[in-house]
Amino acid sequence: MAVLMASPAIHAQAEPIDLSFKDMFRATGRGLSPTPALEAANGKRVRVLGFMARLEEAPKGGFWLCSSPVFQDESGAGSGELPPNAIYVIVRGAGKKPVAYLAGKLAISGVLQIKKEAPRLVLTLDSPKEIAPAKGKGSPRQ
Amino acid sequence: MKLLCIGTLAMVACSVIAAPKIRIMPYDQARFIEGQMFDVRVEFTPSAAGRTILQPKLEIGGKDYPVKLDKANGFTIRAFSVAKAGPVNIQASASESGDETAASKSAKIVIESAGGRKRRIKNIIICLGDGMGIAHRTAARVVRFGHTNGIPNGWLNMDQMPGYGAVTTSSLVSMVTDSAPGMTGYVSGSHNDNGSEGVYPDNTPTDAFDNPRIEYLSQFLHRKFGTALGIVTTADVEDATPASQMVHTYDRGKGTGIVNQFFAERNRSGLQVLMGGGRRWFLPQGEFGSSRSSSSNYQYPPDVLNSGWNPGGNTIDTSSMAESIDLIKKFEGQGFKYAGTNTELKSIPADATKLLGLFGFGNMNTSLDKIAKRRTPNKLGVVDDYFAPDQPMLDEMATAAIKVLDNNNKANGNKGFNLLIEGAHIDKMSHAMDADRAIWETLEFDRAVGVAMEFAKQNEDTLVIVLADHECSGFSLIGALTKSMAEMNALPSDKDKTQPGIAPDRQKAVGVYEDAGFPKYNILTDGFPAASDIDRKVVVGFGANGDRFEDWMTKPMPIVDSLLSNDIKAKMQKGDVPTGGKYVVAPIDRSPESLRGFFVRGQVPGVQAVHTGTDIPVSVYTKNRDIWLQFVGPQQNIDIFFKLMRAAMGGY
Fold it and tell me: Does residue B45 share a domain with residue B137?
């Protein structure tokens, strides 16, 4: 709910910050450390390029965005094949239904939140009215 | 008279319907060995809402057991066992309010003897190629060695084992299993439901950790002989196959609880080595990369802690169940040496007797991607995307595990060990219909089998068994390309050739029968092909496939969506992505197959290939002929448990 509440505060037409997967974390010994770029994007509207994870048991109301293509067989604890920097994307319009798989590279924009519990990175997808007019041929997927 | 009969029948039918339904676990015809622990659970379902169960009774082997119903109208007797071989009848009965008719049900279980006076096998190494059917093995051999005049130029390590047979793979609920019951059948002797590990089903679905348990081979042998346990996998250690060595849960997806159980019950199973991916479950909640969460965790059922599953009341260590725990530190506190990279693995002290290795946050990467990084260390690759550029190969992990477990043997008077070595991505890449990666995974797995065999050759009381939990994808070696890579790359696109009368060029490029010839790969010193895409390469088909485009080439990175805005496309074409790869524009799915490959309609729904119900091959190596002979021929998956137990207890 807090995530959903955060979105209206973002200026709908603001150009999103481009955030690259390779600039989100640095490996530090056993774990990962967020980069200043990631921390600066917390609570802001960002645009990330990635691939929708293809899961046999797809989550409901969202999907995982990864830096590279991912297949997930069986249940695998839900996210076994995912890189640790995978972003969980909330699709408000999907409600409690699985989001249909989209192949290929996707440009995803929405409000990023760094949370204290898994999933740590959550991006609430822009609703259609919040998406800035696309340049060129239109939105990433039609 | 006729009317009276109908009336009588109706009354009988009515009274049967009114009686409660009864479910007994273990299921009818379940088998155990003498002294093996298992839980007995009986559940009653009233025939109608509002009715209550009355006078529940339980009799096992002619003896009455006092019972008290729980909130789910059932009861569980924990850690039951039978000392002497023979059939045992479990009989339960009850009536319900509003009807005095008592329902009764029985399950006849069989206790088998495993002990004997013959020389015991002390070290059991289970090499588990997840999803590995016979065609995976054949394809790997063809790629690795090739043929001359129809004669294989060499054999895989697993081909060279004398005890060769076929094994069924069904679970308790289906002829097609998943990895959890596929593995637990081998090491518990019982069929489980799909998705469950070391437990029978119950009627409390919201609690995945209270189900009736079955004692594993590792737990029994540790209890009886002090045998150590090692678990090595290329998957996340939480995954079904590794967990199915010692974890009891009805839900294979409960990662936090599963990994907590590795720690909590380490002393009950003799866990000394745990290696694979899955660092995410060990990092404390709140730390980046951690997946520890309350939703996948649990509290121990009190009746488990107060039963024979927890000897002395202190064998199960519940001190580290909280999500905020740093489980790596906890393992280190118990004397485990920790390695997070291959470099660290090589630096483990030579006399280490406990080892925790976590080489990825989730699953480790595939051998094709790991080898690519080793061959070109300065080039960013898939392993960099996963923050794990320095991962060991499976044979390196097997070598380290055996060394540590052998140290245990030397330190504790040769009590022996059980070791699982799992090649997990044979299955995962077969699901993805990624033939080349699946073959490379089989090659990597076979190198680990070679490590195990070498130890067995030097240590007489060792048995190495190669199994698969099931076959995956209907993997089939159908032929070889008749064209060179240059010719393949020059073919026009086949993507629109979907009418039955129009043969795609890439379909026509498949050589079958004599046109397949003998593909010849150049194998480098690391044991893997210099390249997967060679002239006249091996062609693999999938009999249990989902929809896909096929171009027969090694799967590269996907490509840019043509509908992306120009600025984004420009970034991707410049390589401004984690891998630095340069992408081109394409509309759908894995590319470039979807641009140039031909469409193959899957026989199954969903986006992936699936497991099949076909038998899998088993290969056994031990110096003891009397033992490996037992594995020759067709057999049930659960038979494997009894044969291993008889080998371990001298009763073969």
Answer: no
CA B172-B178-B181 angle, 5° bins: 45
Domain count, chain A: 1
For chain B, positions 243-282, list CB contacts with chain A under 8 A: 252-255, 258, 279-280
Find, among A90, A91, A131, the residue nearest to A109 by Cα. A131
Number of domains in chain B: 3
Candidates B282, B298, B473, B565: best to mutate against A (most CBs of A within 10 A) is B565
Residue A9 included in any domain: yes
What is the rounded CA–CA span in Å between residue B195 and residue B473?
Answer: 19
Position A65 in a domain = yes
Cβ atoms B246, B237 nearer than 8 A: no
Give the residue on A whose Cα is nearest the Cα of B179: A74
Are A103 and B589 an interchain contact pair (Cβ–Cβ within 8 Å)? Answer: yes
pLDDT on residue B15? 44
Return the CATH number at A35.
Answer: 2.40.50
pLDDT at B605: 83
Q: Which residues of chain B have a CB within 8 Å of the CB of A137?
A: 563, 565
Helix axes B217-225, B179-188, angle to 10 degrees: 30
Q: What CATH number is given to the structural domain containing B643?
A: 3.40.720.10
Q: pLDDT, tens digit, for every residue of B534-550?
A: 999 999 999 999 888 89
In a domain, A140, yes or no: no
Domain that holds residue B162: 123-470+620-649
Q: Does the complex come out with an ipTM higher than 0.85?
A: no
Q: Does A31 touch chain B (CB under 8 A)?
A: yes
H or E element, residue B16:
helix B2-18
State the pLDDT at residue A129: 53
- Render pLDDT for B621-649 as a digit per residue (tens, 0 to 9): 999 999 999 999 999 999 999 999 999 99
Same domain, B445 and B582: no
CATH of the domain at B26: 2.60.40.10
Please check whether residues B301 and B260 belong to one and the same domain.
yes
Nearest CA distance, A42 vs chain B (angstrom): 14
For range B373-400, the mean pLDDT? 93
Which pLDDT band, with edges at 50, 70 and 90, does A3 fall under? very low
- Say yes or no: B92 and B150 in one domain: no
Q: Which of B250, B261, B387 to mutate to test the interface with A (most CBs of A within 10 A)?
A: B387
- B278 and B200, same structural domain? yes
Look up the domain containing A9 and give its range. Answer: 2-128
User: A140 and B564 in contact by Cβ < 8 A?
Assistant: yes
- Among the listed ranges B284-293, B296-305, B437-446, B505-514, which one has the minimum average pLDDT value? B284-293
Query: Are B430 and B521 found together in one domain?
Result: no
| pLDDT > 70: percent of chain B | 92
Dig out the tokens for B585 from the structure.
């524009």
Kindly determine whether residue B607 and residue A54, on different chains, have CB atoms separated by under 8 Å. yes
Domain assignment present for B424:
yes
Tell me what pLDDT residue A29 has.
74
- Report residue A132's pLDDT band, with 50, 70 and 90 as the boundaries: very low
Report chain A residues whose CB lies below 8 A from the CB of B607.
54, 56, 101
The strand pair at B355-358 and B337-339 is best described as parallel
One domain, residues B530 and B562:
yes
Q: Sign of torsion, CA B212 B217 B218 B224?
A: positive
Is A30's Cβ below 8 Å from some Cβ in B? yes
pLDDT tens-place string over residues B344-372: 999 999 999 999 999 999 889 899 989 99
**Residues B16, A58: Cα–Cα separation, whole Å:** 42
Mutate to test the interface with A, among B258, B555, B564, B585 (most CBs of A within 10 A): B564
